[in-house]
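ok so i was messing around last nite and threw this chain in just to see what happens. nothing serious, just curious
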Amino acid sequence: MGKGQRSQPMYSNEIIEAPQDAGKLASSGVFQTVPASSSSLLGHNDIEYGSVAVSAPAETKVQTAPKELPHEKPHEVQDIPFFTLMTTYMSFLLLVVLAHFEDFFGKIFMPKQYVQVRVQNGYAPMVSDFESMWSRHVYARMRDCFNRPIGGVAGGHVELIDRVTHDYNKSFQFTGKLQNVLNLASYNYLGFAQSEGPCADKVEEAMREHGIAHASSRIETGCSKLLVETEEMVARFMGTEAAIIVSMGYATNSLTMPSLVSKGCLIISDELNHSSLIAGSRLSGAVIRVFRHNDTRDLEKQLRRSISQGQPRTHRPWKKIMVVVEGLYSMEGEFCNLHKLIEMRNKYKFYLFVDEAHSIGALGKRGRGICDHFNVDPREIDILMGTFTKSFGAAGGYIAGSKALIDHLRVNSYAAVYSEAMSVPVLAQVSSSMRMIMGEDREHALEGQQRLDQLALNSKYFAKGLRKLGFMILGDPGSPIVPLLLFNPAKMSAFSRECLKRNIAVVVVSYPATPIIAGRVRFCISASHTREDLDYALEQVSEIGDMLMLKFHKDVINQDTKKLK
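result:
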């Protein structure tokens, strides 16, 4: 057996077509939802979930995905004006210079304010002044844009608790007022985060029967009947032999990966993978190598080099090679090139780990995630990971795969042995929402599919609207995550505050979570949003874009319109 082949077991002993011409879509009614006067299957239409019924479900067509995506930056990123790039770099440079300048003179003239970054009684500071410089001088300037407290259900609309600051974001005081805002910030893709409805009723029934929690890890007395039934349902939903549930989404990756690979193994990870995957890779003790984002040619180079050279120093064959990717990248709204990855898996005999935290429930005609979206048999992927915190309105995560793999994890994964079992209300929320998606809830047999259709419509409609307005946006068609590029750090806080003035809640993201020039606002679309919600958001975002000069493609779109006329 050659190097890199699976010489030992891993364990020990469909695509939605992009929108066509806007006029044709408008006339065909694809983007039309049920009028406000129409009744939906939910029984009522309020600010918590909005309308999920659709007048005519969008036609979806399964087609073969391209075998390989070109290794090029998206067109929007390639067309960044030079002036925008220059001013963005200069803005960050100015912030860093002013921060060092303030620290230098502040330690001299205001030493009491720098006690926490100085040596005290022989003890080194817990966090040095250089390590905390970013949070003290950059994050602090826009701290009011983050950690905004809510006072209700995070549905299509949400109640924000109003707060003010009188010391430049060092502290906040609550005013006692609530502000109802359009929620474009939560991962509530299918609108299951509700305080009433069929899922909430099932949760209440489960708590009366099973209590709140089992106060134990699953390997001791926490393995309940409800947990076993939910795991069997997850396996059936994913199309795998078995599945294991973990009570925390982050721990599903960080505490599971060390039981899959160890010293003498190789992990090849996408450069934009989530922090939990990075933490799990480091805890495993395996050698870690990184390939360029979604670049299968660079991945193949890494594989060929690693297999031919073997382990460092000894050049022995790797015990295992595992490639780690995400189904839907949360900061980019992009899909992994699953067809090509599976083709390479069969060729080079590595294990494929796919994180479906954002794609499960949100992609595919049946909501089965990236495999359903690309019409791929899930059994061709070795490890399928996902979370319940997004589409299912719950918490925790799962690992799905072969029965032998799951049996190994039950007794070797830190998450299964040491962490507490998932609580009863969360299990009930997961099982009830999943039954609705699968159509197994007889009383609400069609509601799950309607939510899936509504999410697909909303995602395409909102992204297409932003492009028509001239904004630079990232992401693939059909993604519920729509990032809009802001670039300049000052524009991020200004955009967030202007949205809040217009009763819209958004999330802005900057370096180090993104490249330094690619600061953005990330819109999260939900099935709970109505057509009126999205139209209002597009109108207000357009005004803000004009104010902050964010419509970088406006001239190009105007020229194309003139040519068509």
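not much to say yet. The chain has 18 helices and 15 strands.
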